[in-house]
Amino acid sequence: MATTTTISQVGEFPLISSMVADLAMGQAVTLGPGDDGAVFQIDGSAVVSTDVLVEEVHFRRRWSTATDVGRKAVAVNVSDIEAMGAVPVAVVVGFSAPGDLPAAWAREFMAGMASEADKAGVSVVGGDTTGGPVVSIAVTVIGQTAGMAPVRRDGAVPGDEVAVVGQLGLAGAGLVLLGRGFRSPRAAVAAQRCPEVPYGQGRVAAKAGAHAMIDVSDGLLADLGHIAEMSGFAIDIDTSKLDVAEPVRTVGMATGVDPLTWVLAGGEDHALAATFAPNTVPDGWTVIGRVLPPDQVSDPTVLVDGQAWEHERGWTHFHS
Amino acid sequence: MATTTTISQVGEFPLISSMVADLAMGQAVTLGPGDDGAVFQIDGSAVVSTDVLVEEVHFRRRWSTATDVGRKAVAVNVSDIEAMGAVPVAVVVGFSAPGDLPAAWAREFMAGMASEADKAGVSVVGGDTTGGPVVSIAVTVIGQTAGMAPVRRDGAVPGDEVAVVGQLGLAGAGLVLLGRGFRSPRAAVAAQRCPEVPYGQGRVAAKAGAHAMIDVSDGLLADLGHIAEMSGFAIDIDTSKLDVAEPVRTVGMATGVDPLTWVLAGGEDHALAATFAPNTVPDGWTVIGRVLPPDQVSDPTVLVDGQAWEHERGWTHFHS
């Protein structure tokens, strides 16, 4: 009978050592993993965000490889730093897992983190590993403002153009596919396993003078809803300007679902959505709507083609 | 029948709002919870550490109140920043829990975090809440070097005095008490529920020129072992200088265990241990041993009264 080495057999300290041994440290890092804390330089103020990924809630081991999960853990979190217009610098990870988890899974997870961290321009500087009933991953990213004011959610003003960069709808369509046992279209499945975050575009938006910004994690309508509510103005989306990617159309046809549903309400794509003064939207961003004056619509909500949206706006956890 | 409101009934967004509503932000925080990221000022370099606490691994809901767990989550983590000689600034928390967790538990947990954060001089600037099979808490603390070099584990040199500040043995003795259904001596039980971290003493040690420092989380011998190994020199502990607190003696007598076992190998007290050049140990610290020259003992290990310690040195996770 083939045997699989488990993390319980490897032991905690050797596991940590094997997981961090190959990590590359960026120039800002003056002390990497292995001490009580890691030390790195910050240019300007620090910007911090944390995200938790729990097995069977945010990912499934039978649907995603360990590498996918490691990549996703970094991607979804760096996306929040991008959404502040800041520059991501360092990542730490809290990793808990049952003792019978294959040690190879933990190592591949770490390799996935390292690979995505490299892509995102951050260093994995430390972590904590411990036991637990399921695989649970808490990633914290620290970024730096580097001379620019952070772009908040509450800065949208009437007349702003609303624009997005990155994918929309792919991860939501991919979730439906995986739930039905399909593995294609591959782009949708891949987006569910790990989103393609438009790294660097948050900074581009900040430099273009974005008034408000958010990353689209819960769904475009839900997340623009946060900007609308916190800024105190309504947003109107023009669906004719929304790009519905080919794989999303394909999944829509195969399942009888309007693909716009995933573009508007599917979460986990981690596109960036921002508002800009007219004619300041940077190259590569797509204008999809505008911020309305309060005398036109007083309720700070998100309209779709001028109408209230009667369907699902996004999803949250804990709901039955 | 009395009903308890669960976090599932409250929903994720209202839960987050109720949890963060009462948080006080320190002067360094320029943007608190509620956006994609929190923003705060850093003096010098950033120092980061993360710790995960999992129900039934690190705490039990029947042994500890939600307030205890919230306090402990902050304390054990800030302790790592102290151990670098840095100044803790901000905390983020990843909180996952089953949907049937009483909402009151989550709120009291957050109140515990806020209370300990206040004591430790840090602000809770953000977090993430999600579902999961058990209560699992990942806390990340970011500190600042504020003009002093971080105190690492690898700087001990022969002739150094080894000194500690804070409690030793109480949390370990408390764990035995709770395991047997006892609730006294209260000091030991309280230390297990939440350690009394000697806040500020890490900075005191750094200012006194400490050569190496660590927080005692796994056990004095295990943690001094990290200093010995990373510095490349042996450490000898003089047990006659170890203060065995009265409650630890009491538990020892009641259970027939040598109380020194908990002082030397009991974890979770989060005392600080450091090495200093002779005659530079700060007030309030207790000298308990010294760093040996390699011609006296070549193996970088920790001796007890000049002898190898044949018993347990501390504990790690995942072990059966």
Automatic annotation (TrEMBL), chains A, B:
ATP binds at G127, D128, R153, S217. Gene3D superfamilies: PurM-like C-terminal domain, PurM-like, N-terminal domain. Transmembrane segments: none annotated. Its EC number is 2.7.4.16. Pathway: Cofactor biosynthesis; thiamine diphosphate biosynthesis; thiamine diphosphate from thiamine phosphate: step 1/1. GO terms for biological process: thiamine biosynthetic process; thiamine diphosphate biosynthetic process. Mg(2+) 1 binds at T50, D51, D128. Mg(2+) 4 binds at D36, S49, D80. Catalyzes the ATP-dependent phosphorylation of thiamine-monophosphate (TMP) to form thiamine-pyrophosphate (TPP), the active form of vitamin B1. This is Thiamine-monophosphate kinase. It comes from Cutibacterium porci. The gene is thiL.
